[in-house]
Amino acid sequence: xxxxxxxxxxxxxxxxxxxxxxxxxxxxxxxxxxxxxxxxxxxxxxxxxxxxxxxxxxxxxxxxxxxxxxxxxxxxxxxxxxxxxxxxxxxxxxxxxxxxxxxxxxxxxxxxxxxxxxxxxxxxxxxxxxxxxxxxxxxxxxxxxxxxxxxxxxxxxxxxxxxxxxxxxxxxxxxxxxxxxxxxxxxxxxxxxxxxxxxxxxx
Length: 203
Description:
Layout: H1 2-31, H2 36-46, H3 48-64, H4 68-89, H5 96-112, H6 119-139, H7 147-175, H8 179-200
């Protein structure tokens, strides 16, 4: 029963990626659309800092297993949405960019080290870091687009990236040596360190 639920969840995220994320991104590039949905959809996909964190959340959820498989990604998406609303209405939140970069490093280390935290610690940690990602999405929304459509776009993009991490993690868990997950965490961490150097260099 648990295996069937896990497989259905993975399939749901996979469908979300292939049916919504990839075709929509291509449509945006081809048509040059300026609608809020496309802006929101593209935003997480266009920034390495966001992309790394969202894929890493999926990887770590597989590492944690059990209820965390769905609870951790949902915590990320849910709190990220709240953060976006805060950014839209102009609520103050300090250290947004450093916190986003720190989240990449933290998630990379968690996967690299195979860290398993209980749900009462892992979900709040993921949610706290997601707050800053959401806030950045909210503050960077173009002023001439619909907030609802923009929010739907970046929520679907986040769902797809989390799902990509879940799919990769599940594939690694089933078909690869255990050390492969450590390599995946290392790749996330290398990407995070690249983001750090770009930020320090003003790139």
